[in-house]
Amino acid sequence: MTGLDTLRPRLPSPVQELSDPRFARHGLGLLLKRDDLIHPDLVGNKWRKLAPNLQAAAGRTLVTFGGAYSNHLRATAAAGRLLGLPTVGVVRGQELAGRPLNPSLARCAADGMRLHFVDRSTYRRKTEPDTLARVLDAVGAPEAYVVPEGGSNAAAVRGCRALGEELGGHADVVGIACGTGGTLAGLAAGLPPGRRALGIPVLKGGFLTAETRRLQEEAFGGPRGSWHLDDRFHFGGYARVPAALDAFAEDFEQRHGVPVERLYVAKLLYGLVALAEEGAFARGTTVAAVVTGRPFPQAPSTASR
Ligand SMILES: *Cc1c(COP(=O)(O)O)cnc(C)c1O
């Protein structure tokens, strides 16, 4: 172990039953899978994806990639601080270098992550061996353990199987917001037969079916479980949060007392409500929504576990 167990993650994460008339009047049950409560700093699916990679890194410098507001970068930086592991974040956008850090990157830096800004064309080519070697050289960590953007590699996908296993006895359909598709790929593999996963992409582009298949191939050697995507709820693309979505999320928070992260979780919940009202689920179905994250910046945590 790398000391991960000493961080005392709350696993399996809690399952919470909600009473919501938008589901109840269609004969549907609604559950929340509270992955946002797994750990105060390594939130949600980021714990599930990072844990196996932190083990594999075995103390080596961990280099990973992200945009200026990446939840994955923040989680990686926090893991570095908690485990005493050096981390480097390669950030998209040369123009950000020398500017004041935004709150997300400031948190990364405060957690000891070294930030390295690259131009967009280098960032796009980051998985090409030459480009990667040059970046690792530039950050002085040629022997680093590299985790891809968004944290989705085979180890991460396998780590997300547990999410499906934990939910298998509770829900018929499990909804999950998707960025890279890694969490969906693992979740679907962990669900027992007869249960299915429903992915709501938060990015525009329609590339995610192929990418999720590719990740399952890489992690398991072939397709696993039953899953599909509904591409109608990205609201224009990543980090687009129109007023209507914000109002929906605020209303959900007020109804249920659960903080709703806007970039992913709000789009998932909006999509599930829309599908329920369209009659997309048979009466008697129990739908679970995975709460994969928490709003950021968040109020200072007073919770002590
Ligand atoms: C990263 C993230 C996701 C997306 O996970 P993928 O495995 O990349 O699809 C979903 N929700 C939240 C809150 C996230 O931070």
From TrEMBL:
This is Pyridoxal-phosphate dependent enzyme. It holds the Pfam family PALP. The keyword Cell cycle does not apply. SUPFAM superfamilies: Tryptophan synthase beta subunit-like PLP-dependent enzymes. It comes from the Bacteria. The lineage of its organism: Bacteria, Bacillati, Actinomycetota, Actinomycetes, Kitasatosporales. Residues 21-293 form the Tryptophan synthase beta chain-like PALP domain. The keyword Transmembrane helix does not apply. PANTHER family: 1-AMINOCYCLOPROPANE-1-CARBOXYLATE DEAMINASE-RELATED. Keywords: Pyridoxal phosphate. Its cofactor is pyridoxal 5'-phosphate. Belongs to the ACC deaminase/D-cysteine desulfhydrase family.
